[in-house]
Amino acid sequence: MSRKARILVVDDAPSVLAAIREMLSPDYHVKTAASGEEALNLLGHFKPDLVLLDITMKGISGYEVCQQIKSEQTSGFIKIIMVSAKTALEERLKGYNVGADDYIVKPFRPEELLAKVRVFLRLKQVEDQLHTLNLTLNEQVRLRTEQLNNAEKMAAIGRSAAGIVHNLNNPLQIIMGNAELLTLRHPEDPMIMSLRKAAGQMKKIIGTILSTSYRESSTEYTRIDLNEVLVNQIELLRADPFFKHEVTTETDLRPLPPKRGIYAHFSQSFSNLIRNAVEAMHTGEVRTLSVTSALEADAICIRISDTGHGIPARYLDKIFNPFFTTKPLTATDGSPTGTGLGLASAKEMIESYGGKLRVKSVPGRGTTFTVHLPVT
């Protein structure tokens, strides 16, 4: 149910205040003030949408009250109708010059006052909606600009990393070539077989890094296979010994329609969520990472689950706040560290595409992050 519009009636004549209050109270939330000073004191906590303002009062005049209301940034959108017995044109013009939106002469007909009230309340509502829309658009522009700047920074880092990784290819080829020769001479040697297998895995990881770095260096909107992004991020983690040897990975990736966007936005978001899940299992006995994707109710749904220590209920409403983390910034025992930016960044990226990021967690059993993205 929408709230009643708020109207402040200012007049030093009690009979006028009573008559207008009786007229407006059935449809509006009405407060009265018998002086300009009282009216200004009421503004802060009553926050009217419309002020019906007498001109000639003891103390501060209606003109001064009007000018002060309109000069305040927080009250500049309040509509003001001057209600006065003064009929001279210069009085009306003076009212308009100090910011009044309209002028009605006493004695007035009730239906005329009610009509003016309705008109200016509708205008106030439209102006409020436009103001809110403008703030929203400005915030969206700020977020998009920030994302593009971050994407460009990550692209530069990606190009640098790709160059370094590319240079690893030459020594890796030598290792793989020598491993092949050793295999021909000692085909049953388990150490040589292990060396060949490790070199093959390293080649695959380097290929994934180069492919991902190339895509992340682009800030253009393209059609993205989100399942491929998930697979690549999981594959990149295989360079981590803990993930490779201690974590069991389960995937169930159903066919998804391509999602239009910037590749780096999704790769960074999914990487943050997957790494967070893996790090949550660092001290656990059962370590299973589950990644699923599917179409659900005309939306892309991706779930990333772990069997880690879970998140206490008191932290669930804070984990997406920038810089909030339960991990230390540094550690000497190999424990995961954090800055509190990964989840906040992932949520911001996903929401910029009209999506939602939700979390469910049971302490001692694990956590599931769910990404919902519109198909279009």
TrEMBL record:
Q: Which domain of life is it from?
A: Bacteria
Q: Where is the Histidine kinase domain?
A: 163-376
The top EC class, named as a word, is transferase
Modification 4-aspartylphosphate, positions: D54
Q: Where is the Response regulatory domain?
A: 6-121
Q: Does the keyword Transferase apply?
A: yes
MF terms in GO: phosphorelay sensor kinase activity
**Alphabetized CDD domains for the sequence:** HisKA (cd00082)
Reactions catalysed according to its record = ATP + protein L-histidine = ADP + protein N-phospho-L-histidine
Record-linked SUPFAM superfamilies: ATPase domain of HSP90 chaperone/DNA topoisomerase II/histidine kinase, CheY-like, Homodimeric domain of signal transducing histidine kinase
InterPro entries attached here?
Answer: CheY-like_superfamily (IPR011006), HATPase_C_sf (IPR036890), HATPase_dom (IPR003594), His_kinase_dom (IPR005467), HisK_dim/P_dom (IPR003661), HisK_dim/P_sf (IPR036097), Sig_transdc_His_kin-like_C (IPR004358), Sig_transdc_resp-reg_receiver (IPR001789)
Q: Name one Pfam family in it.
A: HisKA
Which EC number(s) does UniProt give? Answer: 2.7.13.3
Keywords from the UniProt entry? Kinase, Phosphoprotein, Transferase
The protein, known as = histidine kinase
**Organism field:** Desulfonema ishimotonii
